[in-house]
Amino acid sequence: MADQRPARIFVADSVGLDFLNTLATPLDIEVEWIGSGEDLILWLLQADLVPPEVVADLRKRAVAGEFDAVATQARKLREWFRRFVKAYKGKPLKPRVLQELEPLNRVLIRDEQFGRIVARETVRKRPTKGDGDQAPVSGLAWSRQRRWRSPDALLLPIAQAMAQLVCEEDFQYVKACEGHRCTLMFVDRTRGRARRWPPKPGRRPSLRLRRRRATAWRPGGHCASTSSVAIQRPSGDQGVTYIAFPCARYWKSL
Question: Distance (Å, rounded) from C-alpha 15 to C-alpha 214?
Fold first, then answer.
């Protein structure tokens, strides 16, 4: 039977909030986009959080029902994090909220991240005087990677996206859509910080977000050094689909 659900939504300008939006009411009816293990895998692939080759390897090793069990854990983590975001959105986070984030830290502590030296894809000659090209000279690069030992590891990039939200974003600009019955959440990056609805559907994700997704713990996400990241620009926005919401009539005024 064909899937009757709307296309997955990526309008939050934050992967952590995009994950919260996997349960939302964009068309007057609540939609669950990660109701099964297969749903979760498709969302992770579309969000560029897991490389396809990792998914293929996990499928070979997983037992029946294992992905569904991980999806159940993901939904529980999502609803816990939703309560946290709703409680603190619209105001800066203070250090005292750290204790409330302990469930997230318990997931993060299971992560197995490591780095390795790999061949760089593009190398330039040593710069000459006045050369404005900033491409690296070395033919080697530092690559951040992750061990994916079991399907449970699929929770790790989600937890990392949540951690990035609470550590890197100003929570006073985390907002909920004010459209009728719309439950989507987003980060307001407008100059005046006065946005009341998510970005208009059809706009490309911000370059900042596309850069982050392009290097989200996959082979080839290289660091120029231990303190700065040489970001790879994604080739396109294939797989990212937007839909119109009931509050779209307001966007013309933004």
Answer: 12
Quick one: CA dihedral 76, 27, 211, 217, positive or negative? positive
pLDDT digits (tens, 9 = 90+) for 132-145: 556 667 889 888 89
**Strand bridging mode 140-146 / 113-119:** antiparallel
Between 52-61 and 37-46, two packed helices, what is the crossing angle to 10 degrees?
160
**Element containing residue 146 per DSSP (H, E):** strand 140-146
Q: pTM of whole model > 0.85?
A: no
**CA 254 – CA 151 distance, rounded (Å):** 42
Q: What's the rounded Cα separation, in Å, for the pair 138 and 219?
A: 18
CB of 33 closer than 8 Å to CB of 23: yes
> Residue 232: CB partners within 8 Å, gap ≥ 6?
211, 214, 215, 220, 221, 222
Looking up tokens 């007057």, which residue turns up? 28
Q: What is the pLDDT of residues 78-110, one digit of tens each?
A: 999 999 999 999 999 999 999 999 999 999 999
